[in-house]
Amino acid sequence: MDIKQIQELIKFVSRSGVNEVAIEQEDFKITIKTNQTPTVVHATVPAPVVTSAIPVAAAPQAAAAPAASAPAAEDTSKYITIKSPMIGTFYRSSSPDKPLFVNVGDEVSTGKVICIIEAMKLFNEIESEVSGRIVKVLVDNASPVEYDQPLFLVEPI
Fold this sequence. Notes:
Layout: H1 3-16, E1 20-25, E2 28-33, E3 43-45, E4 52-54, H2 59-64, H3 66-76, E5 80-83, E6 88-91, E7 107-108, E8 113-119, E9 122-127, E10 132-137, E11 143-145, E12 150-156
Antiparallel strand pairs: 1-2, 3-4, 5-12, 6-8, 6-11, 7-10, 8-9, 10-12
């Protein structure tokens, strides 16, 4: 990441209203913090290792059906969650006229490209960290995603 990209990221973070953004790649890590008061209410979702913020739009679903979410939580406990490694726009294919990288029911292996996240005009191929079968796609195509936001549920093979 060069200085111009970092400057663009700083501008983006200051306009977006978030208080902190952390990006970590193989040989690079950056954290940007602002002094703004929070403008977005975040709900937390329990995860095996880390608790992550989810968009406000998803919070009413969880609150609306507490009785129904208990059995669903038991069913999803056997699945592995693939999370977004960065902030950006989620795409299920490389272009609108190309086939989707993965569909529900497809088997994936470690290293297979499963989606693209566009960040600052760069299209980053996201590879699966696990081998298994895609059970659910948790994000709509062309939707914004946050760092560490769940993208896919995978049943390990």
